[in-house]
Design a protein that fits this description.
With 185 residues, the protein is mainly beta. It is built from 3 helices and 9 strands, in the order βααβββββαβββ. The longest helix is centred in the middle third of the chain and has 8 residues. The chain binds a DNA duplex (12 and 12 nucleotides) through strand 4, strand 5 and helix 3.
Length: 185
DNA sequence: AGGATGATATCC
DNA sequence: GATATCATCCTC
């Protein structure tokens, strides 16, 4: 099976399903001519405005309008003043959902730590300039690398969302069981 | 356990 | 305009 770029219809589906199926896919960023590539090993689903852990629960604001936009675009934000986090927008336009990419296994031109959403973005060269970027572009996209997805998938509560009440407990974090590049057990 | 560090939302 | 908060990470 040849590598192929994930198309709009991949993203335009149930958010938890997309989060699970992104495991094993490749994230590619052509960063100043350097093609950085990592294999996704950990994700989290933020399923919509009713999800109190999701930024979209604030409604449509200048920041969250990307989450409410069409699927297959990058939602990038700055957290704690020093780290960026990258999401992919899911479901039909207007839904307000996305999948956070939490950890990568290095494949090409990733010199630094990729275990955790902030470190992932730093290693990939991803920052606010890529907020709203189309993932069907030539310089930032996700790809089915054609591997057989035989790995076991773990499903656990999300990290860093204790403020979200019952939504903090929902098992919307997915990772490849046993992979050494997962950010936390 | 606490600090770095800046965008964002939500007040006045 | 001021302030509280933050989907993190590092060091102690």
């Amino acid at each position: 099976m040849k590598p192929r770029k994930l198309q709009r219809n991949f993203y335009a589906r149930d958010t938890a399903t997309v989060a699970r199926e992104l495991l094993g896919k490749h994230l590619v960023h052509v960063d100043g001519g350097i093609v950085r590539r990592g294999r996704i090993v950990e994700t989290e689903a933020y399923v919509g405005p009713h999800d109190l852990a999701a930024h979209s629960s604030k409604g449509i604001t200048p920041r969250t309008k990307i989450m409410y936009g069409p699927p297959g675009f990058a939602y990038v934000y700055l957290i704690y003043g020093m780290y960026h986090c990258m999401n992919v927008v899911t479901e039909p336009e207007g839904h307000g959902s996305a999948v956070l990419l939490r950890a990568l296994e290095p494949v090409a031109h990733l010199e630094n730590n990729t275990k955790g959403p902030g470190l992932l973005c730093r290693a990939m060269g991803i920052d606010l300039r890529l907020n709203g970027h189309d993932l069907l572009s030539e310089d930032l996209y996700l790809e089915d690398a054609g591997e057989d997805a035989t790995f076991a998938i773990a499903q656990r509560p999300r990290i860093g969302v204790d403020y979200a009440g019952e939504w903090a407990e929902k098992p919307l974090r997915f990772y490849i069981e046993g992979n050494r590049f997962v950010s936390r057990k």
